[in-house]
């Protein structure tokens, strides 16, 4: 694997369990330097932040399904070219760990009428290594996974029989020896509903939507279930777009109508409290990053009357006080400023985004300062 010089990007802090404590003052994050165009080139349809070799990168792929080009990009413009996945594999979620990184996804099974849940591993060899984890009848929700030390927990959804709701499944893998535990059924999932899994200080946590609302599940450090999933106490539950634990709080981004998204957090007892709303012209997962005892997030708004689109950075504390700063404002619509991401530490993060398509695709970065 060809390695370029690294950028000074630090990994996000490890996610910790929810506990009660007085929130600290949260600094406001604002643009520190002018926008810089990175010399990347080529079509980009998807980006994801990724930990790799103790640093924080942006992973860019040219196609969401069956990508031909997979690259890591730093805030300084360094690029690592990676071997493309096999054409039989559809990667869904990328993760980094130490000197390697992984993609959880699905693949055509050698067993007729079946589908495989698989993992790809890139290491010193630029060609990804493919391992089949579980063979199932079908998958109706793109897999998600989280890695803590040498253990991984994966989630995926399987269609229900005879018109019944789909079920959310989980599975654990010990990555060094590739020991694969049998899958577990977490229960019914709302069709097309949200689900995700994250790392915690002592294990893993997951959340998913079912007919009753948002449900949480816990796993120990080896990925073993720590008990039956339990519903959160959320009277006004609405569709969830993103989940992120930060320090002593777990944040939720959820729908609040056509032009807004709401932010809430929940405590150790599972009680959800809505704290703020931000403008957003599209219901989509928001890039988020922990900062002090609060939250930093990127959101886009389009103004059809003026034919403009703006990318903004919002800093939010636990009590709902919010500071909103514009980062990019141009002529066009939502598709003209896309794939925003946040990368870096809590003092000087970077905002990435993509403009244009096909041969005109450009990647931009702007340094932020939180003070």
Describe this structure in words.
The protein is mainly beta and 371 residues long. 0% of the residues lie in helices and 54% in strands. It is built from no helices and 30 strands. Strands 1, 2, 28, 29 and 30 form a 5-stranded antiparallel β-sheet that branches. Strands 11, 12, 13, 14 and 15 form a 5-stranded antiparallel β-sheet that branches. A hairpin with a 2-residue loop joins strand 11 and strand 12. It is globular.
Q: What fraction of the residues are assigned to beta strands by DSSP?
A: over 45%
- Unreliable runs: 1-24
Helix content: under 10%
Number of H/I helices: 0
**Structure class:** mainly beta
Overall residue-averaged pLDDT value:
84
Cα end-to-end separation: 38 Å
Radius of gyration: 20 Å
Helix and strand run: EEEEEEEEEEEEEEEEEEEEEEEEEEEEEE
The largest sheet, given as strand count, sense and whether it forms a barrel, is: 5 strands, antiparallel
Q: Could you tell me the number of beta strands?
A: 30
């Amino acid at each position: 694997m060809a390695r370029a010089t690294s950028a000074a990007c630090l990994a996000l802090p490890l996610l910790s369990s929810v506990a009660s404590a007085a929130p600290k003052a949260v600094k406001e994050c604002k643009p520190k330097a002018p926008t810089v165009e990175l010399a990347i080139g080529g079509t980009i349809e998807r980006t994801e932040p990724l930990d790799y070799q103790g640093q924080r990168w942006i992973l860019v792929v040219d196609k969401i399904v069956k990508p031909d080009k997979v690259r890591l990009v730093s805030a300084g413009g360094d690029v690592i070219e990676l071997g493309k996945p096999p054409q039989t594999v559809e990667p869904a979620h990328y993760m980094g760990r130490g000197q390697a990184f992984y993609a959880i996804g699905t693949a055509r099974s050698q067993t007729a009428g079946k589908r495989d849940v698989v993992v790809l591993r890139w290491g010193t060899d630029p060609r990804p290594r493919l391992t089949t984890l579980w063979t199932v009848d079908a998958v109706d929700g793109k897999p998600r996974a989280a890695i803590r030390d040498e253990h991984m927990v994966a989630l995926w959804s399987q269609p229900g029989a005879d018109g019944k709701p789909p079920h959310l499944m989980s599975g654990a893998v010990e990555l060094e020896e590739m020991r694969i535990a049998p899958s577990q059924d977490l229960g019914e999932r709302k069709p097309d509903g949200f689900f995700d899994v994250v790392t915690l200080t002592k294990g893993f946590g997951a959340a998913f939507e079912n007919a009753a609302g948002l449900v949480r599940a816990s796993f120990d450090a080896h990925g073993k279930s720590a008990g039956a999933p339990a519903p959160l106490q959320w009277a006004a539950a609405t569709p969830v777009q993103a989940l992120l634990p930060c320090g002593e709080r777990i944040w939720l981004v959820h729908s609040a109508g056509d032009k807004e998204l709401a932010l809430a957090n929940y405590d150790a007892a599972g009680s959800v409290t809505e704290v703020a709303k931000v403008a957003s012209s599209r219901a989509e997962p928001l890039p988020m990053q922990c900062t002090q005892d609060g939250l930093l997030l990127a959101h886009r708004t389009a103004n059809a009357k003026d034919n403009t689109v703006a990318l903004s950075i919002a800093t939010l504390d636990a009590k709902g006080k919010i500071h909103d700063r514009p980062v990019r404002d141009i002529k066009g619509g939502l598709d003209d400023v896309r794939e925003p991401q946040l990368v870096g530490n809590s003092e000087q993060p970077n905002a990435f985004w993509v403009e244009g398509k096909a041969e005109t695709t450009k990647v931009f970065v702007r340094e932020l300062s939180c003070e």
